[in-house]
Design goal:
Order of helices and strands: HHHHEEHEHEHEHHEEEEHEHHHH
Largest sheet: 8 strands, mixed
Distance between the termini: 129 Å
Shape: elongated
Oligomer: single chain
Radius of gyration: 46 Å
Number of strands: 10
Strand content: 5-15%
Number of helices: 14
Length: about 400
Amino acid sequence: MPARSADGSLPEAPPGARVGGGSSRTGERPSGEPSGIETAARSAYEALLGRTDRPDASPASTAQDSADAAAAKARAAATPDPAHAAQEAASTAPDHAPTSPVTLPADVRSWLAERRLLDERRGRVHSPQRALHDLLTEQRARVDRSVAELHRGMAAFEDVLRLLPGSQVTSRETVEAEFFGDRARLRQRIEDLDTLCRKEVLGLRSTFPEREVLERGLDFDLRMLERGVELRLLVSARAARRTGAARYLAALREHGAQIRVTTTVPLHLNVIDRAVTVMALGPTDDPTDTSGDVVLHSARLAECFARVFDHHWGIGRPTAADGKRVGCDGGTEDFSPREREVLALLAAGAKDEAIARRLGCSERTLRRLLTALVAKLGAESRFAAGVQAARLGLLD
């Protein structure tokens, strides 16, 4: 049993000493088991917290009794003989006479203070709720200081960066790209994209596939036009002369598509809603080329390709179904029965709603068809188109 001082208190433990013996390093303990200091500190805290409410004890005796009890529990826990442990604890049973201030081992006192369970300056213990509150407050303050320091550092970094000559922070965009080496799979993907299209398709055509493929795609393109999607195609003169191309283009134009022909086109592509671009990576008329095709999901890139399209569209010319230039010199054979019917109804004063109902299409599709007819007749307005149609005998 440890010797007591004259006033009955336990002597101050030397720095680094452990209550109950053992190593002074708190980290050395079996996994999942508390260390000796932790055990002693818990016991001391429970004793101190439990005796502060005793009405007949002075603060000094309360603290001393708690320390004595904690030390006894720690020694009992470290004693292998249960009988000896009980005797050890009983020999240190506290008396309630006033004693000197509490003397806890340094490592136990440090353990409690670090967890805000012991206020050494005021000589009092805190409840677990108060300790949690204090710890959380300190952690929040530490995080706030770290965030403020980080912001200051970033601001300093940007200030220095702006001083560098010619340096500029640029934004980056990750572009999703789909590559295709099989044109059949690409056509299926284009059909999916066209189904999702809501407003506009811009197309540059340097060539057309074989007649069978072109005819299979015609029905799908016509359904897209019936939904009110605006379709503009700029076709190279060579592509317009391919077998089946004239019939395909005439059918599209009859349903409201706008088609122009130019000497050459720089690319073979589709721009869908100015958000997705489908483009051939190599020559489309070379069967030995293995470059394939790509689908780019980027509004920025799509807008760039749309500008290329608009530039070349401005120098293209409208075409008739047989490939001849249309306008005031065109003949009646250049106009389909559907187009002649529209012109006749327009000349008779029919409203757009009535004409669309007669043709079985939407008013939006009709307006596109009328725009194409006005351009085809080389007129400046719908009225002028009616005059030109009467002159050509299209209203008979």
